[in-house]
Amino acid sequence: MGTGQISRHLAEIASGAAEGTLVVHNSTISVNHVVSGTTSKLQTGTLTDMGGGLNVGGSATIKGSRINGNSVAMTAYARHVSAAGGGIEQPGSLLLVNSEVSHNHVRSSITSTETSAGASTDGGAMEGGGNALTVRSTKFMGNTMESTGPAGL
């Protein structure tokens, strides 16, 4: 993606899922949201949502860009819910240079009253764990996370 903007989308695909090679240069990725949940009491496993701005499954190079105001929110009646990567979810490799990752948010909450139920969050700005991560001359500011559950987890 050359100079451009991805903004104000509500869906995992619209938020910028990338499985191949992604190049973002002098662009803005902002105000995108991944929102999901369930009220089903039959859900027994873990429910997870990731990547409010970008979900980099392959490799990505981001230069001179802004990733801001994106979010991931998961609410469910389940044993465990998890939300990660408000700005960027990075299971692949990422080069992030001369950019800004700001004011992204991750929230997870459990509606179950079981004390063994738990909610967790990772990476208000970004959640890594991929093959390789290189960050140079990049500002991170105002990124947040919150989790609520019956056990306080």
Low-confidence stretches: 9-18
SSE succession:
EEEEEEEEEEEEEEEEEEEE
**What does the largest sheet look like?**
5 strands, parallel
- What shape does the CA trace take? elongated
Topology (elements, then pairings):
Layout: E1 4-7, E2 17-18, E3 21-25, E4 27-30, E5 33-38, E6 46-50, E7 54-56, E8 59-63, E9 66-68, E10 71-76, E11 80-84, E12 88-89, E13 93-97, E14 100-102, E15 105-110, E16 118-122, E17 126-127, E18 133-136, E19 139-141, E20 144-148
Parallel strand pairs: 1-4, 2-7, 3-8, 4-9, 5-10, 6-11, 7-12, 8-13, 9-14, 10-15, 11-16, 12-17, 13-18, 14-19, 15-20
Characterise the protein shown here.
There is one protein chain. With 153 residues, the chain is an all-beta fold. Helix content is 0%, strand content 54%. It contains no helices and 20 strands. Strands 1-4-9-14-19 form a 5-stranded parallel β-sheet, with no helix packed on it. Strands 2-7-12-17 form a 4-stranded parallel β-sheet, with no helix packed on it. A 4-stranded parallel β-sheet has the order 3-8-13-18, with no helix packed on it. It is elongated. About 7% of the residues have low confidence.
Summary?
The chain is built from no helices and 20 strands. It has strands at 4-7, 17-18, 21-25, 27-30, 33-38, 46-50, 54-56, 59-63, 66-68, 71-76, 80-84, 88-89, 93-97, 100-102, 105-110, 118-122, 126-127, 133-136, 139-141, 144-148.
